[in-house]
């Protein structure tokens, strides 16, 4: 009886161990599948595979990091940072941890959050001091942050002055437009008056011509032909 109990315990131990290995293999299988899709630039499907891996093992730092990369390539920056931070908390390898915080710095730098980017790059360099790319990005963010702080802030007084100047210019433009309208109206009126005068003059000339013709028609024919040879 005691021997039978010992054998059952041994079988159960093997089953539990086998289940653990199957689960671990399943994690790696989904990660490998996701990596293949990632290399094919199919980031949405790669994201789905990494999520499957995390369903098997939610504390797999490689799955978390790779998921962050897939999200980052889809411009889902906020979600990517969440996964990177989770990976950074769990990851034990300094080199891989440095990559995590380097990517966080890249996202923050792209969004001009230079303070957050500086903190992430500094954490990355603490884990990998030999990363020259991270060191360059850190120096660039410090310079950009300094320039950002030196930019003048908008002054409400200047804005009010600009608004007043706009109103003055608007009033001047309105006055000029009114003057132009009046001038155009006067010109049109003058043109009408001139046209009427010319028309009246033409009518008077026509009447005078007709009167002269009538008088000429009333004179004797001999008189009209007097100068003919």
Strand content: under 5%
CATH class of the domain at 13-91: Mainly Alpha
Counting DSSP H or I runs of 4 or more residues, the number of helices is: 9
Question: How far is it from the N-terminal to the C-terminal residue, by CA?
Answer: 170 Å
SSE arrangement, N to C: HHHHHHHHH
Q: Report the major sheet.
A: none
Rg calc: 47 Å
The stretches of 5 or more residues where confidence is low (pLDDT under 50) are 1-22, 219-229
Looking at the overall shape, the CATH architecture of the domain at 13-91 is Alpha Horseshoe
The third-level CATH topology of the domain at 13-91 is Serine Threonine Protein Phosphatase 5, Tetratricopeptide repeat
Backbone structural class: mainly alpha
- Determine the fraction of residues in helical runs and give it as a percent range: over 70%
How many beta-strand elements?
0
CATH homologous superfamily descriptor of the domain at 13-91:
Tetratricopeptide repeat domain
Envelope shape: elongated
């Amino acid at each position: 009886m005691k021997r039978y109990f010992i054998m059952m315990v041994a079988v159960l131990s093997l089953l539990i161990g086998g289940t653990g290995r199957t689960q671990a293999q399943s994690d790696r299988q989904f990660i490998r599948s996701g990596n293949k899709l990632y290399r094919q630039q199919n980031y949405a499907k790669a994201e789905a595979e990494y999520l499957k891996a995390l369903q098997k093992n939610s504390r797999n730092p490689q799955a978390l990091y790779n998921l962050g990369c897939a999200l980052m390539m889809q411009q889902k920056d906020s979600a990517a940072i969440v996964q990177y931070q989770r990976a950074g908390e769990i990851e034990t390898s300094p080199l891989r941890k440095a990559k995590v915080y380097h990517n966080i710095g890249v996202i923050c730098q792209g969004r001009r959050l230079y303070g957050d980017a500086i903190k992430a790059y500094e954490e990355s360099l603490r884990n990998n001091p030999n990363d020259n790319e991270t060191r360059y990005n850190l120096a660039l963010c410090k310079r950009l942050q300094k320039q950002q702080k030196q930019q003048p802030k908008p002054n409400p007084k200047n804005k009010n002055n600009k608004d007043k100047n706009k109103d003055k210019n608007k009033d001047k433009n309105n006055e000029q437009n009114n003057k132009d309208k009046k001038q155009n109206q006067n010109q049109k009126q003058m043109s009408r008056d001139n046209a009427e005068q010319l028309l009246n003059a033409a009518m008077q000339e026509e009447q005078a011509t007709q009167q002269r013709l009538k008088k000429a028609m009333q004179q004797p024919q001999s008189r009209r032909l007097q100068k003919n040879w």
